[in-house]
Design brief:
The chain is α+β, with helices and mostly antiparallel strands and 481 residues long. Helix content is 53%, strand content 12%. It contains 16 helices and 13 strands. α2 packs across α13.
């Protein structure tokens, strides 16, 4: 069997299988992390632009504009301070808005946020600029509440919970599901799923949408239960008396006057007790029972009028300045806050990229250390190769090739791992945040990372290669002992 360079390299790697494998894994992890970060640099920026859609401003009572955006659009946490309905009407009338959509976020269902809003959310608001809501099945909830509890499910929420049109559910006050604090279930009112939305690629995909009046009714029920002021069931005493008299007449026709008289007294006694019992029965709260204190929202989506096909308007800044003069509210311009968010995440991204580069450099050092250590054990082997006719340059190239091969194997595995890692990150971001991140990396970048890693590994092999080059044949072929 001919002793080829490849055979020598393969046997050398096989003799140090654990060390070789550990080094390859280190290179693979570094390459995978680097590629995942590079592939998502642009896609996560685009993902943050989705969800704010065509709104120009977001009004809330959160601590800061950035918190308002995170809570009101990305469903980070339910806002802690509410806006009164009278305040909403005041703000809605303060400017000729194209739309002023009320939203209330405070309930959830099996981990999915529930956003209470108006039908204008579906007809005027666009989750992604230039793209309206689409229905995968069913319909939007009715514009008028009419004491019908209807819910429309976002695509991710429907996929996660398995809900479909016609299903019934009870929403939970506060967070629910994994990682959420246990909340009170509004089991007095049953919602029916009337529609499932098409994917929008925004955080809204993981939410459920209900009529804001229905949310008010739910919380009014809780308020009245705590206060003991639930509305009572009305009893029609006149109808009750007529039924009793009709029963008396029928009894007299049977000729049992004495017995009927006693029975009549018992019936009236029973009737009085029944009426007394009904006076203490309670019915469910309806929209007619609401008071102004029940009508609360947590945010307002605002848009000023613009020319058709344009998202800019000279009136945006004056309207923003006008709202900011009101110290009782927090006003956020989504475009500005998204820019701030991108800067924050961008700084984190730079740190992660630096860490990936550091891991890649450390893997190169690992290659150098592993091969340098092995050189002390392989001096006699190298001396034998020299005797067999291997020149110094050929021995040098063997070590460099071995080092480059370790880097190439790690890079190849890293590319494969990065594809799986990018898919995992995309899946988690969509399920947990509702963000559609589409990782993309050109073949040129893949080739550049692969070649760069291989060259870096070859460079790391220079020190052990020089050690092999300088190995003395006479010194290392002396009899052992």
């Amino acid at each position: 069997m001919a002793l080829t360079d490849f055979t020598i390299i393969r046997r050398s790697l096989g003799s140090r299988l654990f060390a070789t494998g550990a080094t390859v894994v280190t290179v693979a992890v570094a390459v995978a992390l680097l590629l995942v970060l590079l592939s998502m640099r642009e896609s996560w920026r685009k993902a943050f632009d989705r969800g704010t859609g065509n709104m120009h401003m977001l009004v809330s009572r959160d601590a800061s504009p950035l918190v308002a955006l995170l809570n009101g659009v990305f469903y980070a946490n339910p806002p802690q301070r509410a806006i009164e309905w009278a305040k909403y009407n005041q703000l809605a009338d303060s400017f000729p808005w194209e739309f002023a959509i009320p939203v209330q976020y405070g309930d959830s269902y099996r981990g999915s946020p529930v956003l209470a809003t108006s039908s204008e959310f579906f007809t005027a608001f666009e989750p992604v600029q230039g793209r309206r809501w689409g229905l995968a099945s069913g319909r939007f909830f009715a514009p008028e509440f009419a004491d019908k509890f209807e819910v429309v499910a976002g695509s991710a929420a429907a996929a996660t919970t398995g809900m479909k049109v016609g299903d019934k559910l009870h929403v939970t006050h506060g967070a629910s599901g994994p990682g959420g604090a246990a909340g009170h279930e509004h089991d007095e009112f049953t919602y029916e799923v009337v529609g499932v939305l098409e994917p929008s690629g925004s955080a809204h995909d993981r939410a459920l949408f209900t009529h804001v009046t229905g949310a008010w009714v739910l919380h009014a029920q809780d308020r009245m239960e705590r206060a003991g002021t639930l509305p009572k069931v009305e009893v029609n005493h006149a109808e009750h008396d007529e039924n009793e008299h009709a029963h008396d007449d029928a009894a007299e026709d049977h000729g049992h006057d004495d017995e009927e008289h006693a029975h009549d007294e018992d019936d009236h006694a029973h009737g009085d007790g029944h009426a007394h019992e009904n006076e203490h029965d309670h019915r469910a709260v309806t929209a007619a029972d609401l008071i102004e204190a029940d009508k609360l929202i947590t945010g307002i989506y605002l848009r000023v009028p613009t020319r058709p096909g344009s998202d800019n308007s000279a009136s945006i800044q004056p309207a923003f300045d006008q709202l900011r003069r009101d110290p009782s509210i927090t006003v956020a311009q989504p475009t500005q806050q998204i820019g701030t968010l991108k800067k924050v995440v961008g700084n984190i991204e730079q740190i992660l990229l630096a860490m990936a580069a550091a891991v890649l450099l450390s893997s190169a050092v690992s290659i150098m250390v592993a091969l340098s250590t092995s050189m002390d054990q392989r001096r006699r082997q190298i001396a034998v190769l020299r005797v067999l006719g291997f020149s110094r340059p050929r021995v040098l190239s063997l070590v460099l090739t071995e080092s480059a091969l370790i880097g190439a194997m790690g890079a190849a595995i890293g590319v494969a791992v990065s594809l799986a890692g990018a898919w995992l990150v995309t899946f988690v971001m969509k399920q947990k945040l509702g963000l559609l991140i589409e990782p993309a990396l050109s073949p040129r970048w893949l080739l550049a990372v692969f070649v760069g890693t291989t060259l870096l590994a070859a460079l790391a092999g220079m020190v052990p290669a020089i050690m092999a080059y300088r190995t003395s044949v006479a010194k290392n072929l002396r009899p052992m002992g």
